[in-house]
Amino acid sequence: MNEHEVHARLRAAVKEAGCDALVAHSMDNVTYTTGFLVPSQASNRFRRAIAVLAGDDFGCQIVVSVEAPLARERSRFADVRAYDQFADDPADTLADALIEAGVDGGRIALELDFLPAQDYMRLRERLPNARFEHARDIFFGARMIKTDAEVKLLREVGEITERVMGEALAQIRPGMQETALFAFINNQMLSAGCDAAKIQIGSGARSGITNCKPSDKAFEGGDVIRIEILGDRQSYRSNVTRTAVLGEPTAEQDAIWSVLIDARDACEAMLRPGTPVPDLWATYVARCRDGGIEPTLRFLGHGIGQTIHEEPYITETRDIVLRPNVTHTMEPLYMMPGRMGFHVEDMYLITEHGYDKLTGGRVTNDRLISVGDRQ
Q: Which of 50, 270, 276, 306 is the 20 to 30 A CA-CA neighbour of 101?
């Protein structure tokens, strides 16, 4: 029986890193490795869900006993091991699996930026001859290049999100509260097939708050309105942002927006395999500064997949070149705290010869969107 594409990719990355085993503990990496989200992992921090790959063919999933039937039905692993939440230490179940795999004296890649300290201490006791390494780059490197199935899911959730964005913009009227628009968007996202959504809305001076939780503020004529929708469909995410004006934009607003769109367009023209990520950032910064504005964020965009933010971050510190099937966002953003803020964000897929916009074709934001017309 052929191994799942994700497992084969991870095993290859483990070997390249010089490790003997890879262990996932975080919700996103366990979900990526096993192919499904263990329900209680998202809500109960005392329950562990663990995925293990070792050597050429060892693999298993470890879950709390109440989740074992579902895991045996849905996991990519044929070997699902259960532990008793009230009688067993899941770190012991993991140690036993690593000993069985014959890697207890080898180099084991763990999520050292996530693993609970008590679990790490127990593993050190049980596996005194093991050398524990960071798993972060192994996972992010593998996850950065999407499978065709992952691209399909990202395209689906992106299309839903952009469609709902258009519906939401059409709802805006003077006097409507941000929270009412939030409720409309949330209902539309769930009705369209998303499992969850996170929504940020800021109008008027609140549009200048980068992460703006919807409030009871009512929309007023002349408001800049920023809407960011982050969808979740089968554990894959969307991230779409649009900036609108209730009425007609001012000359100042149009001028700022044209700088951001010029910078975005210059970066879009560079999207192809082989482009160094720092070059995108440098082009973005130069275009913004040439237009008289300083980028608010220290990155232009980020990878997107199992989580909203993953590699590649588009900034000067990442020694990464674009490759086919990388999915990422670009989000030119300029905040004027206390006055207004501007932000557009779309999702991109790097193809063999260029790029494909997963979002941006249905509800364009090349110009500030004028909303509030009852006609």
A: 306
